[in-house]
TrEMBL record:
Organism placement in taxonomy: Bacteria, Pseudomonadati, Pseudomonadota, Gammaproteobacteria, Pseudomonadales
Record organism: Pseudomonas linyingensis
Record-given protein name: Uncharacterized conserved protein
Signal sequence residues: 1-21
Keywords: Signal
Length: 149
């Protein structure tokens, strides 16, 4: 291998390495120490390629207030990705779409609907919506589950 080829090969290696690093989806999850379904949701994120930074919090109410989660949107855990909140059992698909929504402050699945990721109870599939909070302060339905109804 001559020098020029060697440099080209090295550059290709570096570029693919950088692309891999950019694909790493890092998300911070804040949760109560005793929250089992929160751990279920973390498993769902990891299965979908997210790297989860798990934070056990003494006061989730304070965390939600700090991150701007409106009380009507509240659930158990609160996550943060790219400076935006992800409240409750939001499916990975919508978290990925959030990157293309600069108009949204965050996403939420209010409450804890059965059948959402981390809230599996056998075959039970409650209807639920994924809500986006716009910068203007409005709620917008970004997805409805179960899908295809
Ligand atoms: Cu939960």
């Amino acid at each position: 291998m001559n020098n020029r080829l060697r440099i080209a090969a090295l550059a290709a290696l570096l570029i693919s390495g950088a692309a891999q690093a950019a694909d790493t989806l890092s998300i911070d999850v804040h949760r109560d120490a005793n929250c089992g379904c929160c751990k279920g949701w973390i498993k769902h994120l990891e299965a979908n390629g997210f790297t989860v930074n798990d934070h056990v919090e003494p006061d989730m109410h304070a965390v939600k207030q700090r991150l701007g989660v409106a009380p009507r949107l509240a659930s158990c855990h609160t996550a943060v990705i790219d400076g935006k909140f992800v409240e409750g059992h939001v499916p990975a698909a919508q978290i990925l779409e959030l990157r293309n929504r600069p108009d949204l402050l965050g996403l939420a699945v209010p409450g804890m609907p059965a059948g959402s990721p981390g809230m599996e109870y056998g075959d039970r599939k409650d209807a639920y919506q994924v809500i986006g909070l716009t910068k203007a302060g409005n709620d917008e339905v970004v997805a409805e589950y179960p899908a295809g109804q």
